[in-house]
Amino acid sequence: MIIAAWTLLALIRTPSALLVNGLPANSARYWVLVFAEVLASLVPWMLATPLILRIAEKLPLQSRALGRQLAIHFPLGMAITVAASGAGVLLMQPFLDTTPGSEFAWWKRQTTIASFYAATSYISVLGVGYATAYFQRYQRRERLLLESRLQALTAQLNPHFLFNTLNSISALGYDNPALADESLSRLSDILRKTLSATPAQIPLAQEISLVRQYAELYTMLIPDRIRVQFDVSSDAGSAAVPCMLLQPLVENAITHGVCRLEHGGSIILDARVANHTLLISLSNDGLKVDGPHRDAPEHGTAPLRTAAGGVGLANVRERLAVLYGEEHDFALRHRPEGGAVVSLSIPFRRMAA
């Protein structure tokens, strides 16, 4: 990119150099010669550009220390400008027919003239360096804020999941202490995994494994009432998804759907990849909703306002918005026969297990 930028500048300067040298503009050979001369004079600037960009990165502009920074930049800029200009004059000398007077006196005069013009080149490259450094710092700051926000959202999920499950185990303890004890052991295994240092995104197959454990725990708490079916394609299993994405959805399907039916019901999770997009659908049996069936897509920044939209669903939607912005879709639809379907789509990004 640096070489291309300076080469483009050489092309721009070539016509003016032709006029100054008085060379015939209709000769292709002279065009090439003058272009080579101008390009040779800019080669030292190609080499100096990374150094100038590094200076901009290490000496960011600060209003409180502006005077001290200018005192550092002035001698540095002068030294780099004179050195690059002097080296450029030496490199362009072979393309000239003669040098009037002594070579040293000619070099010194040409270097002085070139340095005055090249001061703007140093300032321009320094400005690009400051803009690049500012953009990188802005990206780092945004990434840190994003990670902090995701960590806060994930931290909200664990207590919500924990309290709901403990309430169910507590109710079971009066009737079947042995099963309650086994359920607590299973819960501790799940918490050990969910509360450990887990990355913000994991493969879908790993998320499915956590959901299976959670479903098995609930099957122990209310046996013969929950049937969970997973239909995940092989390519979808390697897709990167936010950690704890599916658990709140399954919890919502159980507590607000299947558990409200006298004889329980089924939960079906389907995941596939189509057109570089991961499509996930979670349907569950449940009570019928009175009135017209609502189709409530959730996209962008509007909060969830649905009959079954508790903390878990709102948290999932918020995390999807933080991670994917406008690249995701989230919808909750009540089925005419009862129950609901949650559908979401996110960009497909393959992730190693």
Explain the overall architecture.
The structure is a single chain. By secondary structure, this protein is an alpha+beta fold. The chain has 2 domains: 2-140, no CATH class; 176-347, Heat Shock Protein 90 (2-Layer Sandwich), CATH 3.30.565. The chain has 9 helices and 8 strands. It has helices at residues 2-21, 28-58, 66-92, 103-173, 177-194, 204-221, 234-237, 246-255, 311-324; strands at residues 201-203, 226-232, 240-242, 265-274, 277-284, 295-298, 329-334, 340-347. The protein has a 6-stranded mixed sheet. A hairpin with a 5-residue loop joins strand 7 (329-334) and strand 8 (340-347). Residues 292-309 have low confidence and may be disordered.
What are its keywords?
single chain, 353 residues, alpha+beta, Heat Shock Protein 90, two-stranded antiparallel sheet, 14% strand
Mean pLDDT: 79
Number of domains: 2
The largest sheet has its strands arranged as 2-4-5-8-7-6
Helix content range of the residues, please?
Answer: 55-70%
- Tally of separate helices: 9
What is the CATH H-level superfamily of the largest domain?
A: Histidine kinase-like ATPase, C-terminal domain
Taken from the alpha-carbon principal axes, the silhouette is: elongated
State the CATH topology of the largest domain. Answer: Heat Shock Protein 90
* Largest β sheet strand count, sense and barrel closure: 6 strands, mixed
CATH class of the largest domain reads Alpha Beta
Proportion of residues in β-strands = 5-15%
Overall structural class, as computed from helix and strand content, comes to alpha+beta
Tell me the span between the first and last alpha carbons: 36 Å
Overall number of strands:
8
Which stretches of 5+ consecutive residues score pLDDT under 50?
292-309
- Rg on CA atoms, Å: 34 Å
Task: Label the CATH architecture of the largest domain.
Answer: 2-Layer Sandwich
